[in-house]
């Protein structure tokens, strides 16, 4: 169960901390057009395909030994960019994405529409041992703690093995926690790194992980 960074997470230089107002949090949780494709002040500021995964995915493919016979699930696929690029890099691979809000699914690339679906993450619509690899980036820690426990159980249920990669919001001291709380709009469960490790042990999680913290985000 190693800490793994495949190159997607690079710290911005001195990102200016802008407090997440209540209005901004409400807007973010709607996860609609304003959040994905509206102003940068309100969210992504235009969540558009840029091909970045084509450069990042080779490390994931190598680490998890993915091939044309592999079955991969992305939890929190948004507009399906990772699914699109993984299918492009590994022709024939069975890659499925799920998202818990409809807007990004309606705006996904047409090439992957049939491979992604709407679903709550606490009850995955798949049979036991369905996937060779599971990826959940910036998604599962937006649920409350109780639901997060259910998600861990679901991930274990549908996974054939421990080829799993998740990202989690974390901190090491109160100053960094304050930075995260002032900045984030969607992070619900934020734990100290040592507490995440304790949680992994309690729920039997043995996959890979990456901690998203104030340093990674470049928050002052």
CATH topology: Rossmann fold
Shape: globular
Quick one: biggest sheet?
7 strands, parallel
Mean pLDDT across the residues is 91
Task: Say how many strands there are.
Answer: 7
Specify Rg, calculated over alpha carbons.
17 Å
Provide the number of structural domains.
1
**What is the H level of CATH, i.e. the homologous superfamily?**
Vaccinia Virus protein VP39
Tally of helical segments: 9
Span of the ends, CA to CA: 30 Å
Descriptive account of the structure:
35% of the residues lie in helices and 15% in strands. It is α/β, with parallel strands linked by helices and 220 residues long. Strands 1, 2, 3, 4, 5, 6 and 7 form a seven-stranded parallel beta sheet that branches. Strand 5, helix 7 and strand 6 form a beta-alpha-beta unit. Helix 3 packs across helix 4 (81-89).
Based on the model shown, name its key terms.
globular; Rossmann fold; alpha/beta
What's this, in brief?
The chain is α/β, with parallel strands linked by helices and 220 residues long. Helices cover 35% and strands 15% of the residues.
